[in-house]
């Protein structure tokens, strides 16, 4: 290891000292203490040199002797030099190879010849030196030290001066700012130091030797030394020019003009101008680099400025210096902060959750000022509130939680307003983690904090309307609609598709036991991110159910209102989570706790107004209803434990005190809704038959029309009762499907026929009338099995009332034509009578009347019930030609059928059976048997899987496991009213081509037994039939592009592209004629990209431009100028408004241009001057970046690579450029020359 006797260099402490020493050394011209003089080459060791060494004295001894020619002086150090004789003496020292003079160790090796040979040392600067073997010299330290140390003499010191700090020097300036001045070694810092120096304009021309003269810094002096000669020469030339007379200057100029050529003189003049311009720019850059403000704007514009930390470097950063600077800093800080962070850290709220106007002066006595980041401003930001929610002071935590509760309530109430929507999003942002703070607060040990935490969590979870009490129970119209008991929450999903490789790997992992479950994968996502994606799942992971169970125990210290908040939280979680959450709630034994708290340990009837907290909880019964919807298993448990609820139905509402009668109505309605849910599963309470008398009373109350007295409460209760009786008819029709069996007999629900028929006859259009129509529609559907109703009313009496209600005057006043449920109920009623033998003819004529047709036409695409009305009407009006005539416009009917069919296909399990019926009736029945058999797999979406879905339309209770069927939607998906219906229809009709194009990712394509050619040919032919009048232009173009990319392996041959098949070629030409020759519609790049996303969204996320690149490459490699392929490509090149699409072919694939031999008429190109549906071709395209494309046009024309439509298009594009002002004249001249040729 090498060791150095030199002191180690410390860059932070010794850098400036070392530079100061170097500067003083050069200024004083100090004589070095030693110097090295290179001697001659070493001489070889011989016997003569050895003898000479024996005769001469040692170097140390020679050095001790005084030299005769050099007198010794005091105070002067002796200069040591090595002469040639000393070099010989050094060479004469004994070597390691001289074994005769060196004793050997006793046990050491004595064979010196065994040592490895040593290579000679070669002087790289002497080419003629002889070869000298390498030697290892034994050093004579005594002689060497003598040469180095020489004589040591002491200087005489006459006066000793104590050390002092040099004022005005650089080192005295290091502490002016309170910090040591950093070492400057970069050129940037050197320039800054030189620029800020007071003497920066006076560059020293000579080095002074005095020790009192100081330079700005050592680094700047070095920089001056480098730049000094250049500045001297320049200044000298300038001075000489100034000293010259006018005659001398003119003579010198003439001499230069005569001696140099004109080009040289012009070059020198331009160089001088450029030099001046560069020097000016450099000076500006240097000034900008020296200015901290300029540097901030230039290099760190996006970084927030910390003025307080920069104030010591530049006074302009001192925001307290003046008020205008403070306002400017605040304004800059405002612009650099993003909107969300501004709301999180800048918007301040009062204790009522309302934002505070920063321009208003809030009095201090309101208590909104605090010791936060900005104590002069009133109110609290969300950042401060989430910080204070962790305070150690319980009252402070309570205050913060109450404020957060009110902020959340205001945000939920003002949904749709951008400000409040952003505030609400902040609570769910992962970095804010608002839900985590509120969930943690629910574990607080202080009761006052716990109550506030429960209210805050309720404000976060509950939506607008969840806080309602009795009023919410009266809004039962949607629940009483057809299949209104089915919950359809919207669940946002992210589609993920796997190819064959991924699926194979997944299968192998599953077989090896390595497959990760979905729950395990979700564990990798932290709680904050899970809350942002799904609030319900996030809270469940944070064990909120276990905490609610603890807080709702019988010995809980929480007040009744807080427990009710917890129950409402459970209701919202159950609605959002479906069957899984309902099952989890039951597994946590929350059902027993809620029943004990809200039902079993409550007083009844409600006779005293001052005992509200002791009466049954409406929220508890509502929770039972929601849980029963979610899971059949939970419904079975509720059916066993909820018999205590029947006392609310048996007690008249007038028994309650007047102020609580609305609450009594609400309890009865919620209980009836729960009974309807249970009967849907076939679960019947044993004491349901005991409700015969109360139910009759409710229906009679609805018949009397006491709407003005109780705000429609009797109607709501009567309509809910009729809906329960309608479901009971399905249960009574097959008593073996109920639990327990035969729990409902047919005569029980039909005993109410007279009073319901009276409601049908007398009531005006309303919710109650619609439920009565639905009751008789269900009753009529079992007419052949149960022909007689009772002793007083027959089916003929029912039909007579229906005929009277419908009327024969061409108008129907008994139907709310704008509501899908009303139309559906009458269609179902007429369809049920049309299915019966007795009334088939009359009922069918009624269905085929223009009156019913107009009602169906009005609601056919409103919603699920409207599409169901359309399907029911089409089933009973069997002749399609009759349906088209009744519709009025045959083309409109074809579109209406497709709209309803496609919408049903995309609405999930609830409409699965309806969608199958519509596809069979409106699509497959229109095709011949061969086409239908080929495309049925794709259009029916794999019919074999439909057996897994519950047939809700058959009301088969025992098969139902849940009544919650979510509508799965992708995030950021457009609402149905904003989706282009024609685009959706076209995409669905062409969907078999998309499935075959994505063969490796499509389950249906892999299951298909037909060839790709058969499927594609059948799809093109079916599309011609189904889309004979209207088609989405861009969607059809993209589908045709896909088929040109498809291949198929033929028997005994290699893979071949399917577009070579004759059937495909014929169908493609027909579609190209229809699409490309259309003078009213074209497809630009944006519409093609949108069509690509919609048609391929189920399989791939590849951008359309990549697909287009593959399409062009496919044409270049395998098309051989195929007419259809070339025609489609030429159409895109001409009608696309994107330069990238054109430049890809005209420049990168210019060799294929000669193969695109398509006339203008074949692609619908009529020149730039003809009227075009999308405006002028290329209009709106940015021309400033199209020079390369224009050059590509010119190159193709000059080389005769294009003909037909492409040649005409390129020439028109070039002609159009000549009138553009933003095109260079040089380019215009080239275009003009080309066009003249």
From TrEMBL:
<feature type="domain" description="RPAP1/MINIYO-like TPR repeats">
    <location>
        <begin position="1007"/>
        <end position="1203"/>
    </location>
</feature>
<feature type="domain" description="RPAP1 C-terminal">
    <location>
        <begin position="347"/>
        <end position="411"/>
    </location>
</feature>
<keyword id="KW-0539">Nucleus</keyword>
<dbReference type="InterPro" id="IPR016024">
    <property type="entry name" value="ARM-type_fold"/>
</dbReference>
<dbReference type="Pfam" id="PF25766">
    <property type="entry name" value="TPR_RPAP1"/>
</dbReference>
<keyword id="KW-0804">Transcription</keyword>
<dbReference type="GO" id="GO:0006366">
    <property type="term" value="P:transcription by RNA polymerase II"/>
</dbReference>
<keyword id="KW-0175">Coiled coil</keyword>
<protein>
    <recommendedName>
        <fullName>RNA polymerase II-associated protein 1 C-terminal domain-containing protein</fullName>
    </recommendedName>
</protein>
<dbReference type="InterPro" id="IPR013930">
    <property type="entry name" value="RPAP1_N"/>
</dbReference>
<dbReference type="InterPro" id="IPR057989">
    <property type="entry name" value="TPR_RPAP1/MINIYO-like"/>
</dbReference>
<dbReference type="InterPro" id="IPR039913">
    <property type="entry name" value="RPAP1/Rba50"/>
</dbReference>
<feature type="coiled-coil region">
    <location>
        <begin position="235"/>
        <end position="289"/>
    </location>
</feature>
<dbReference type="InterPro" id="IPR013929">
    <property type="entry name" value="RPAP1_C"/>
</dbReference>
<feature type="domain" description="RPAP1 N-terminal">
    <location>
        <begin position="235"/>
        <end position="275"/>
    </location>
</feature>
<dbReference type="Pfam" id="PF08620">
    <property type="entry name" value="RPAP1_C"/>
</dbReference>
<feature type="region of interest" description="Disordered">
    <location>
        <begin position="32"/>
        <end position="79"/>
    </location>
</feature>
<comment type="similarity">
    <text>Belongs to the RPAP1 family.</text>
</comment>
<feature type="compositionally biased region" description="Low complexity">
    <location>
        <begin position="195"/>
        <end position="228"/>
    </location>
</feature>
<feature type="region of interest" description="Disordered">
    <location>
        <begin position="195"/>
        <end position="232"/>
    </location>
</feature>
<dbReference type="Pfam" id="PF08621">
    <property type="entry name" value="RPAP1_N"/>
</dbReference>
């Amino acid at each position: 290891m090498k060791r150095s006797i030199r002191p180690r260099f410390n860059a932070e402490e010794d850098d400036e000292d070392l530079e100061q020493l170097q500067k003083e050394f050069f200024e004083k011209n100090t004589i070095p203490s030693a110097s090295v003089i290179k001697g001659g080459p070493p001489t070889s060791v011989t016997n003569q040199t050895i003898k000479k060494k024996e005769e001469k004295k040692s170097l140390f001894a020679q050095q001790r002797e005084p030299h005769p020619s050099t007198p010794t002086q005091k105070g002067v150090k002796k200069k040591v030099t090595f002469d040639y004789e000393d070099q010989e003496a050094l060479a004469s020292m004994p070597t390691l190879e001289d074994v005769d003079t060196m004793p050997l160790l006793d046990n050491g090796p004595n064979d010196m010849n065994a040592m490895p040979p040593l290579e000679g040392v070669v002087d790289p600067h002497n080419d003629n030196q002889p070869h000298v073997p390498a030697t290892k010299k034994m050093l004579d330290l005594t002689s060497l030290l003598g040469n180095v140390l020489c004589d040591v003499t002491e200087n005489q010191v006459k006066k000793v001066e104590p050390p002092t700090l040099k004022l005005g020097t650089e080192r005295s300036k290091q502490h002016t700012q309170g910090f040591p001045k950093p070492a400057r070694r970069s050129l940037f810092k050197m320039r800054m130091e030189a620029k800020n120096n007071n003497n920066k304009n006076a560059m020293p021309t000579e080095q002074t030797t005095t020790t009192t003269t100081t330079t700005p810094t050592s680094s700047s002096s070095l920089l001056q030394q480098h730049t000094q000669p250049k500045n001297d020469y320049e200044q000298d030339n300038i001075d000489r020019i100034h000293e010259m007379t006018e005659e001398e200057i003119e003579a010198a100029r003439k001499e230069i003009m005569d001696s140099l050529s004109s080009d040289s003189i012009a070059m020198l003049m331009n160089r001088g101008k450029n030099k001046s311009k560069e020097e000016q720019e450099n000076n500006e850059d240097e000034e900008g680099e020296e200015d901290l403000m300029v540097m901030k704007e230039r290099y760190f514009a996006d970084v927030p400025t910390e003025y307080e930390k920069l104030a010591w470097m530049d006074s302009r950063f001192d925001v307290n210096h003046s008020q205008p600077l403070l306002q400017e800093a605040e304004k800059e800080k405002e612009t650099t902060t993003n909107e969300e962070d501004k709301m999180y850290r800048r918007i301040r709220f009062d204790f009522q959750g309302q934002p505070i106007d920063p321009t208003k002066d809030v009095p201090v006595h309101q208590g909104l000022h605090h010791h936060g980041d900005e104590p002069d401003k009133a109110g609290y930001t969300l950042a401060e509130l989430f910080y204070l929610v962790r305070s150690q002071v319980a009252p402070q935590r309570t205050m913060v939680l109450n404020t957060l509760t009110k902020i959340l309530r205001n945000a939920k109430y003002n949904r749709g307003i951008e400000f409040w929507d952003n505030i609400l999003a902040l609570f769910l942002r992962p970095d804010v983690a608002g839900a985590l703070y509120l969930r943690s607060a629910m574990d607080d040990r202080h009761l006052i904090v716990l109550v506030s935490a429960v209210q805050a969590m309720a404000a976060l979870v509950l939506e607008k309307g969840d806080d309602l009490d009795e009023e919410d129970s009266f809004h039962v119209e949607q629940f009483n609609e057809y299949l209104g008991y089915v919950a359809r929450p919207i669940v946002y999903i992210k589609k993920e598709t796997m190819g064959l490789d991924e699926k194979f790997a997944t299968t192998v992992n599953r077989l090896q036991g390595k497959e990760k479950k979905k729950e395990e994968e979700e564990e990798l996502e932290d709680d904050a991110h899970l809350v942002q994606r799904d609030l319900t799942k996030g809270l469940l992971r944070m064990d909120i159910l276990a905490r609610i169970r603890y807080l709702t125990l019988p010995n809980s210290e929480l007040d009744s209102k807080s427990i009710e908040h917890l129950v409402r939280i459970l209701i919202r979680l159950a609605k959002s989570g479906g069957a899984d959450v309902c099952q989890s709630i039951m597994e946590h034994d929350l059902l027993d706790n809620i029943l004990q708290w809200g039902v079993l340990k409550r007083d009844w009837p409600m006779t005293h107004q001052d005992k509200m907290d002791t009466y049954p909880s409406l929220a508890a019964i509502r929770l039972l209803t929601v849980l029963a919807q979610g899971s059949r298993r939970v419904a079975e448990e509720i059916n066993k434990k909820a018999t205590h609820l029947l006392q609310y139905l048996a007690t008249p509402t007038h028994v309650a005190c007047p102020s609580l009668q609305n609450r009594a109505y609400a309890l009865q309605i919620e209980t009836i809704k729960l009974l309807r849910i249970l009967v849907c599963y076939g679960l019947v309470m044993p004491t349901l038959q005991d409700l015969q008398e109360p139910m009759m009373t409710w229906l009679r109350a609805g018949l009397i029309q006491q709407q003005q007295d109780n705000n429609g409460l009797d109607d709501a209760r009567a309509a809910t009762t009729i809906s329960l009786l309608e479901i009971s008819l399905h249960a009574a029709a097959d008593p073996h499907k109920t639990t327990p069996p035969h729990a409902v007999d047919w005569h029980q629900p039909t005993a109410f026929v007279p009073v319901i028929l009276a409601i049908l006859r007398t009531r005006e259009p309303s919710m109650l009338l619609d439920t009565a129509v639905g009751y008789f529609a269900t009753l009529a559907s079992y007419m052949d099995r149960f022909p007689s109703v009772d002793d007083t009313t027959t089916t003929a009496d029912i039909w007579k009332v229906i005929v009277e209600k419908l009327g024969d005057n061409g108008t129907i006043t008994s139907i709310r034509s704008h509501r899908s449920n009303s139309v559906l109920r009458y269609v179902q009623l007429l369809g049920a009578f049309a299915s019966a033998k007795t009334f088939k003819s009359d009922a069918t004529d009624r269905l085929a009347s223009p009156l019913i047709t107009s009602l169906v036409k009005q609601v056919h695409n409103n919603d699920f019930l409207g599409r169901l009305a359309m399907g029911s009407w089409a089933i009973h009006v069997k002749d399609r030609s009759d349906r088209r005539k009744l519709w009025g416009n045959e083309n409109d009917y074809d579109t209406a059928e497709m709209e309803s069919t496609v919408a049903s296909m995309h609405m999930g399990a609830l409409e699965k059976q309806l969608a199958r019926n519509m596809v069979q009736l409106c699509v497959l029945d229109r095709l011949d048997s061969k086409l239908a058999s080929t495309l049925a797999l794709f259009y029916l979406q794999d019919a074999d899987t439909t057996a897994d879905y519950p047939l809700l339309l058959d009301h088969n209770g025992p098969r139902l496991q849940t009544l919650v069927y979510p509508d799965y939607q992708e995030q950021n998906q457009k609402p149905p009213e904003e989706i282009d219906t024609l685009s959706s229809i076209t995409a669905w009709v062409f969907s078999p081509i998309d499935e075959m194009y994505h063969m490796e990712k499509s389950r249906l394509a892999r299951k298909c037994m037909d060839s790709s050619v058969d499927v594609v040919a059948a799809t093109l032919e079916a599309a011609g039939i189904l889309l004979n009048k209207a088609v989405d232009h861009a969607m059809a173009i993209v589908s045709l592009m896909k088929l040109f990319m498809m291949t198929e392996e033929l028997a005994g041959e290699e893979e071949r592209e399917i577009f070579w098949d004759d059937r495909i070629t014929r169908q493609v030409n027909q579609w190209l004629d229809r699409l490309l020759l259309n003078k009213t519609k074209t497809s630009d790049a944006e519409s093609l990209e949108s069509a690509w996303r919609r048609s391929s969204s189920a399989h791939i996320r590849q951008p359309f431009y990549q697909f287009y690149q593959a399409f062009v490459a496919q044409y270049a490699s395998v098309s051989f100028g195929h007419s259809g392929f070339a025609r489609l490509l030429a159409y895109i090149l001409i009608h696309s408004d994107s330069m990238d699409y054109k430049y890809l072919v005209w420049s990168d694939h210019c060799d294929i241009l000669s193969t695109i031999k398509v006339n203008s008429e074949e692609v619908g190109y009529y020149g730039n001057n003809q009227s075009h549906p999308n405006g002028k071709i290329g209009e709106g395209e940015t021309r400033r970046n199209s020079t390369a494309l224009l050059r590509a046009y010119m190159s193709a024309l000059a080389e005769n690579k294009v003909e037909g439509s492409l040649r005409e298009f390129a020439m028109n594009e070039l002609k159009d450029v000549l009138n553009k002002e933003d095109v260079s004249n040089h380019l215009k001249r080239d275009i003009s020359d080309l066009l003249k040729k």
